[in-house]
Amino acid sequence: MTLSIWRYSHLTLALVSSLFLLVASITGVILAVEPISNKIQPYRIADADELTLAETLTNLNAKYDEVLSISRDRNGFISVSVIIEGESKQFYVNPFSGEALGPLIEKAPIFQFSTNLHRSLFLKSTGRLLIGLVSFLLFLIAVSGIVLIAKRQGGIRYFFAPVVRENFSQFNHVVYSRLTLLPILVLSLTGVYLSLLRFNLIPEENIVHEVDYDSLNETPIIPIQEFELLQNIKLGQLRELEYPFSEFVEDYYTIRLKNREILLNQFTGEVITEKKEPLVTTISSWSTVLHTGEGSIIWSAVLGLGSLSIPYLMVTGFVIYFKRPKIRIKNKFLKNECDHIILVGTEGGTTLLYAQEFHKQLLKSGEKCYLGMMNEYTVFPQMNQLTLIAATYGQGEAPATASKFMQLIKEHLQKQPFSFSVVGFGSTSYPNFCQFAYEAFDTLKKYSNATALGEVFTVNNQSFEAFSNWANAWAKSQGTALRLEKPKISLPKTHISNFVVADRVDFSKEDTFLLTLKNKNGARAVSGDLLSIIPEEDGRERLYSIGNLGKNTLAVSVKKHPKGVCSNLMGQLEKGETLSAGVVNNRHFHLPKSNKEAVLIATGTGIGPFLGMIASNSPKRNLHLYWGGRTSESFGLYQPHIDEALSKNKLYRFIPAYSRVDDKKVYVQHLIKKDGGKIAKILNNGGCVMICGSIAMQREVMTELAKICSTYLKKDLSHFQNRKQIKMDCY
Ligand SMILES: Cc1cc2nc3c(=O)[nH]c(=O)nc-3n(C[C@H](O)[C@H](O)[C@H](O)COP(=O)(O)O)c2cc1C
Hints:
seven-stranded antiparallel sheet, binds flavin mononucleotide, alpha/beta
């Protein structure tokens, strides 16, 4: 079944059952309190379960004139039904002394009300039927949820792998549904079972004893404390013991144990008959315990949390659905008449929004172009240009609208030559960054009539800046110009703040500079977060990684681009001037809070966030910094920070790689390879590796890290990526 069918089934089931599910789950939470409040009552006597039935009966017989029955409930409380002064009384007792402990627990009105609402919505049989149906729907919702999580995680074996936080609802929906999956499955299945039982769709068997009354002996009369069977059964095994009604031999003791029922001769203590409990009764009893949590504080709490999670999952689920961009495409031209075909691989819809903007601007500039999904790949008779804009899902797999693309390329061969470009949408928080885009690119490249226009262009975390850079470069290569407008998507909110330039250091030879910014009105930034700047000149957002140096100061290192609007604007800022910017939370690139060792790898201005991480590090944690630049002069910008950190033991090792010092160019990946053993040890001990800088450097470093993991640790790099031990923020 395709992903969208699972998704729609999950949503439709939740919508259809939402009201009833809400009632059942809220009353379920209330009812989970009942077994807990019962269990904490002071009626459980230590070691009572170890007492034999013979001892119990002797103790109670000594205390009361007439005992009718003894019961043990799921809380382990012993109660008796006795006649005192001609009146029948029931209460909890101490089986050692026979002392009365208190009256039987009565159901509080709130629990009574909730039970009725929970079981039948006060609608008698109709209500019971509805609730049974809702339990079944809940089970189907849970199953479709399991499939959806397995698909999004890239396979069932990654089901419990860490979830990348894309947004609040998506992250929490997945995390809490996994956490509460077991109680939800148990509640739904046992709910269905108990409903079937109530409607007699599961036949309940009663134990029927066949007693041969003629063979019952009245002698020898043995005192009850000497009955062999009663001496061998512990009170912990008892459910109920009924005394004989009269002193006729035809009346006997009825003993209901956890797994069998026994009739016992009241004079001789002989077993009259013994029957095992039918399987249906055992299953029913387990279903009740599992559904209600009776007798166990822990399980009741687990069930309560499971029920509580249902409304929460409903809300977050609906938010995910309604926030998802809707996939609707309008085309002005037929695909057969277009010379430029744009195909999109998307799952969440954001890639399509970017592609739509690209398509719109191309149409404005007079191009005859067609926008479709990658799964629509076919023979395009007029196509001379193909643009693929593809996200990556699961563990580096195709998104929903491109799942058949690889097969379709083979089936539909284009007759004419054409050129193609591939833009990959992905996130460096995932192990296989933009892998599907790379695979699509490699597959297309194999066809002799397909010419690649450059390499795959990657867009990290839906960066509009990156996408419009690509669009501008592409347009330039075609001899035209494009101006894309940012689609309205809800990316993490930025809080605009004023920053005053506290210091600036320049290295003009390489057009790089380091700004120290003092935050004037309180945007809280963690090293690794991003500074968001939107220059008035073009209204487009640029993001820069920042380091928090403490005392409200941030470090941001920038390289000026010859025609870069924002980098030049920042390059002109003088000490004391103010910059308006936002701080974007970039949680996946924060240094973990634990004190585990970490390896920081950067090239050029990528060192920015690490300056902050190092400044706030304690000497207890060893940080190793690998930095790549052209010469030691290039390092001058950062040297004071690094020297100070080394002297204060905030940085353990600094390992520079200079590419223009000796004849032999040294890059960071060479040093990583050399220190393979050390890095492997750090990863194996739970430490992490963080990479910041260019995508090109990231790919080289990742190749080395993959080799290190397989050589030294016999593990795949993805093992550590899944555990969030490899963190990247590359551009
Ligand atoms: C469950 C899930 C798995 C993902 N797996 C990857 C991955 O393996 N590699 C990658 O680069 N990006 C991965 N991403 C990030 C998406 O490709 C990225 O967010 C993209 O912009 C989504 O585009 P869409 O909204 O058009 O589907 C994943 C996202 C999600 C939600």
